[in-house]
Amino acid sequence: MRREASGEGWSARRALASRARAPSDTGLHYPVVMARTRNPVARVHKIIDAWPETKETISHGAPTFWGGKRTFASLWDNHHGDGIQALWIKSTKDAQDDLVAADPETFFVPPYMGPSGWIGVRIDRGPDWDMIASLLEEAYRMVAPKRALKQLDAE
Predict the structure, then answer these.
(1) Hey, how many other C-beta atoms are within 10 angstroms of the C-beta on 52?
(2) How are beta strands 62-67 and 70-77 bridged, if at all?
(3) How far apart are CA 24 and CA 107, in angstroms?
(4) Rounded CA gap, 3 and 20, in Å?
(5) What is the structure's pLDDT at 90?
(6) pLDDT of amino acid 110
(7) I want to staple 63 with a disulfide (CB 3.0 to 4.6 A). Which of 53, 75, 87, 104 is the partner?
(8) Structural contact between residues 77 and 16, judged by C-beta atoms closer than 8 angstroms
């Protein structure tokens, strides 16, 4: 996985980290967006790092994951004061409806992206990371270039 070396990538996150620290009693030294669930960005990286043509940038103030030139997931912490730490993952409207109906405590329709079928997955309540990995792979396959999918399937 390629991480942006300049622009909105790592340098932007470092700048954010220097301004927004976790509460000092936690002893943590990364942005507040990562303080509630043990480093969810690292968990997402662990899942997607081997996939071709993926990258992470900061978009609209949140770590956002790309397959080629299109986004497939974004990590949000307390978006507009909602108190939720969640991954927004690209999906279909049918999958969104099924997941939200099956487990509304874990899944929700995220603002802005929800009408396009994106799924909000709460990660502040002990998430099932195997299921999240499956949802992320499905989302990646929806946006990744054909050459990247060929490479992924050949591995």
Answers:
(1) 19
(2) antiparallel
(3) 31
(4) 21
(5) 97
(6) 92
(7) 75
(8) no
Closest CA to 125 of 107, 140, 112, 145: 107
pTM > 0.85: no
Residue type (1 letter), 10: W
Q: Tell me the pLDDT tens digit for each residue of 106-150.
A: 999 998 899 999 999 999 888 899 999 999 999 999 999 999 999
Domain boundaries, the chain: 37-154
- Residue type present at position 153: D
What 3 state SS string does the chain have? Answer: CEECCCCCCHHHHHHHHHHCCCCHHHCCCCCHHHCCCCCHHHHHHHHHCCCCCEEEEEECCEEEEEECCEEEEEEEECHHHCCCEEEEECCCHHHHHHHHHHCCCCEECCCCCHHHCCEEEECCCCCCHHHHHHHHHHHHHHHCCHHHHHHHHHC
* Single-letter amino acid, residue 51: W
| Single-letter code of the amino acid located at 85 | Q
CA gap 106, 99 in Å, rounded: 9
Question: What CATH number labels 37-154?
Answer: 3.90.1150.30
**Which ranges of the chain have pLDDT less than 70?**
1-37
